[in-house]
Amino acid sequence: MFELAVLWRKKHFHAQCELQCASLLRINASHNGAAMLLAEMFFQKQNYEAAITKFYKLLEKKPNNYLALSNMIKLFRRAGRLCDVPCFIERAERPNARALSHPGLNFCLGLHCRYSNDMVGAIKFFNLARRDGKWGFLAIINMIELYLNLDDELRQKPESSGYWHLYKYSIRWDDSATFECSLESVAIAAQLLKELKAFVVPDDYSLKIQVLEAYIFLASRSRGKIDAAMQIFIDILEKEKDYLPALLGMSTAFMLEKSMTKARNALKRIAKITYSHELAEEFERGYLLLADIYIQKSKFDLSEELCGRCLKYNLSCGRAWETMGIIREMEASYKDAADMYERVEPVSETRSSS
């Protein structure tokens, strides 16, 4: 019954998935998989309170259910309630004196740090989880994305941290690039990718790994590597013509080549694809890149519509709030601009500094 529910979810038959989970829970009320899948269905329908209630019940029974905790952190982020996360993390730590050595908890801590714009803390905790058979490949994927500066919102430069040797960022936004990172960061990302390939990962992550490899090529900024990355994106899109991460990577490559018209066309294609929560991060980045292009063309209404899409699915999207503030400022609506800027999430003070 559970496998059938999972199949319905993969096929995007959400109503059937919900019914199957409900039937299974009537037979076995303590079936964690069905409860989590049902919570995910509520989440995808943006029924945040119902989803939070489901996850809360799971964590009430078992506070160190790290899969449920990681999903709840993602949910709180989407609901704009990251401030509610620490109490659940503390509850997960409390029953076990060795909890801080658990890879699952460290992954959750890394996720919370990443979403709170604490890059150093994120790298620290993901690093503690990266050797684990269950959580390791997810931690490494997050680490590679951080080293390559794929998160538009991360601007903190952690020079004062003792973990500066682990992680060096050089973030500059301009008309021709979506990210810039140091050669050391690129080298670390490449090494992590080698580690990632040693893991046995689910089949649905195979294309994701190819895209990460292409981003490492892009980050090198060399002509030959950019061409190699573009070929990876082309090969993927020949198999799956609307595979969003490859489309997003291709638009990034066009920007590096200063082919802004091609980049805009690729991003417009992304904007027309039906939104899915499985690729929420990529949709968000695509919307925001296109919004930036529209601002440069003074098409503020189109840019604002894209920011609105981001905030519809993620109320903690600081980059979207900031872009809205820029639009209001350029329109001389300074009070509205200040209100938007105030919504940008501050850098979180986490235990990475302790």
Gist?
By secondary structure, the protein is mostly helical. The chain folds into 4 domains: 101 residues, Serine Threonine Protein Phosphatase 5, Tetratricopeptide repeat; 96 residues, no CATH class; 66 residues, Serine Threonine Protein Phosphatase 5, Tetratricopeptide repeat, CATH 1.25.40; 67 residues, Serine Threonine Protein Phosphatase 5, Tetratricopeptide repeat.
Give structural notes:
By secondary structure, the protein is mainly α. It has 4 domains: 1-101, Tetratricopeptide repeat domain (Serine Threonine Protein Phosphatase 5, Tetratricopeptide repeat), CATH 1.25.40; 105-200, no CATH class; 202-207 and 214-273, Serine Threonine Protein Phosphatase 5, Tetratricopeptide repeat; 278-344, Serine Threonine Protein Phosphatase 5, Tetratricopeptide repeat (Alpha Horseshoe), CATH 1.25.40.10. 66% of the residues lie in helices and 0% in strands. The protein contains 18 helices and no strands. Helix 7 (103-115) packs antiparallel against helix 8, helix 9 runs antiparallel to helix 10 and helix 11 packs antiparallel against helix 12. The longest helix has 17 residues, at 223-239. Residues 152-179 have low confidence and may be disordered.
